[in-house]
Amino acid sequence: MIRNRLIYEPPRYMTVNEAVEQLLEIEEKRQENAYTKDTLAVGVSRVGSDDQIIRAGTLEQLLTVDFGKPLHSLVIVGHRLHLLEAEVLRENAVDLEGLNRVLLRDYNIDNAQKAAVLGQARTYAHKLEADESVSESEWKGQLYSWKSICLCTIPLIAFGLGTWQVQRLKWKMALLDDVNDRMHRRPVALPLRVTAEEINRNEYRRVIVYGVYDHANEMLVGPRSYESEPGFIVVTPLVREDGSRVLINRGWIKRELQDPKLRPESQSAEPVAVVAFVRRSPGKNSFMPDSDPDSNHWFNLDLELMAKHTGSQEVLLEVIQPESAAAAILDARNGVPLGVPSLVDIRNNHLQYILTWYAMSAITGVMLYIS
């Protein structure tokens, strides 16, 4: 939400099926044997609701399960598994017979161990009930002491966090005003040489740049989802009149169109005038694998590595999609990458955080007073 300008976009979420599909695709490309289609995993959706779904099976089996509406989560089972955990997986198995085979093969757990582990659990429970080494009054005294300490610190910490969020809200409102002012200025021509300081000072400023796309060095970053549909971000060097190059984030395409031959309308060799936002380097996501320029596998927008690979300046521009929604949809169908909206939505949830922390401070303060 930009100040005084409301922008609503459809909710976006990743399904268990999409997560499994992308994990298997990454493993197929990298061949690191981190997991396979036969790896044991658990898919869950809407946990805690009346219609929650929990299914256990191999990654390949989870691809066939319809988990329904969001929110979804995917858990990959580790190399060790407790017998009680195995029983819970059996209760939620996609295919019980297939799950038993995986448990025996990967974890050496069979049905004969089920009775033994349940017996051990009952014995341990009886032992806990019989253990009277600590008196009830002693436990109550310890509980009261720790409760008092926690209740004394929680209101102060929550109040401090709420006050910190007030400062963050002021900072975010000033940032939104600044970004809003830059986005509504008239586009200017991008200089032939741009410094990092100028990029930071003019982020989200609209610029016009002329040149010819170097499609031979096109890079696909992903996979990336758009409205729950898998695809890629297209980054192409633009050769300018003096021979210098800048990197253009042209936008998103469907996964089925990653072959340039399937989208000839996006491969024009004619000079173009590009209207785009100036953007800082997004930085590397620590959860993403490293990109491999030699095989042209890019998992993140690593501006420094991309510039070095293509001989470009470390300048990243994001193409702005047409103002007409019909024109944007037509471009997407013809394989032309879908650029970013002309008005960028920058999240501002600090007011919500302020109310949350101050409410927690007040509630825990009342609890302390009552106790």
Task: Please give a structural write-up.
By secondary structure, the chain is an alpha+beta fold. The chain is built from ten helices and ten strands. The strands form two sheets. Strands 5-7-8-10-9 form a five-stranded mixed barrel. A three-stranded antiparallel beta sheet has the order 2-1-3.
Task: Provide key terms for this protein.
globular; alpha+beta; single chain; three-stranded antiparallel sheet; 371 residues
Terminal CA distance reads 42 Å
What is the helical fraction, as a range of percent?
40-55%
Please state the CA-atom Rg, rounded to the nearest Å.
28 Å
Total beta strands: 10
Beta-strand percentage range: 15-25%
Mean pLDDT: 82
> What is the structural class?
alpha+beta
List the helices and strands and how they pair.
Elements: H1 16-30, E1 40-45, E2 53-58, H2 59-62, E3 72-76, H3 83-91, H4 96-107, H5 113-130, H6 136-183, E4 188-189, H7 196-201, E5 206-213, E6 219-226, E7 229-239, E8 245-254, E9 272-279, H8 303-310, E10 316-319, H9 325-333, H10 350-370
Parallel strand pairs: 4-5, 8-10
Antiparallel strand pairs: 1-2, 1-3, 5-7, 5-9, 6-7, 7-8, 9-10
Helix pairs in contact: 3-4, 6-10
